[in-house]
Amino acid sequence: MADNIHPIFEQLVQRDERESRLQQRSKVLWLTGLSGSGKSTIAKALERRLFQDGFFPQVLDGDNIRSGINNNLGFSAEDRSENIRRIAEVAKLYLESGIICINSFISPTREMRDQARLIIGAHDFLEIYINAPLEVCESRDVKGLYAKARRGEIKGFTGIDAPYEAPDQPALEIRTDELSLLESVDRILDYLNPIIAHN
User: Fold this and answer.
1) Confidence of residue 2 (pLDDT cuts 50, 70, 90)
2) Cα(188)–Cα(199) distance, rounded to whole angstroms?
């Protein structure tokens, strides 16, 4: 089967040409953290700020992806790994298109995030740890997921009966129990702006 596949990537408009058109450097931001830590909230606000500042960003969010391209996947360890693999491949397409791709996924294990980093490329993969204590995440619980997990209605829920492995050396750590949304976004932008500015 592989003998019949002939990618034409090198014949297409290249990343540096697209970056020049968009006047930005594309990167993949990978926001990881517990459910309720603030990943989606920060991703939405960050996307809006970048767009207002003249950049061209795109958010990939867990619930959106699972209702579309990954709607055939469950929450077994194998399916969660495949979920992240597919997301990383999509993020890489955005990266090659010159777009700043903001990913918001629990991605609970280092192995999963390492897989995404390998697909995307270590130089372009910016791991951002959205960190809040479990009790703070539970108190936010807008979806009621922690309550269901505590009652045993959801099995394998990260932070309750499945582990979350915090990043060892994230590019950035945002403590959402200590920072406001505005402060969190400002801190990410302070780090990001020199990286994505097109010279």
Assistant:
1) low
2) 20
**Beta-ladder partners of 170:** none
| Measured distance CA(79)–CA(73) in Å, rounded | 6
The half-sphere exposure of 11 on its side-chain side, counting CA atoms within 13 A, is 3
Could you identify the residue written with the tokens 């997990």? 149
pLDDT tens-digit series, residues 78-120:
888 888 899 999 999 999 999 999 999 999 999 999 999 999 9
Contact 21, 98 (CB under 8 A): yes
CATH number of the 14-191 domain: 3.40.50.300
d(CA 183, CA 93): 30
Parallel/antiparallel/unpaired status of strands 28-32 and 125-131: parallel
> Do residues 147 and 35 touch, judged by C-beta distance below 8 A?
no
The encoded tokens of residue 67 equal 């209702």
- Which residues lie across from 60 on neighbouring strands? 103
Give every strand in the sheet of 125-131, ordered side by side.
57-61, 100-104, 28-32, 125-131, 172-175
* Tokens at 61, concatenated: 């969010």
Token digits for 72? 């055939």
Catalytic residues: 107
Domain ranges of the chain: 14-191
Contact 49, 185 (CB under 8 A): yes
Cα 191 to Cα 147: distance, rounded to the nearest angstrom: 35
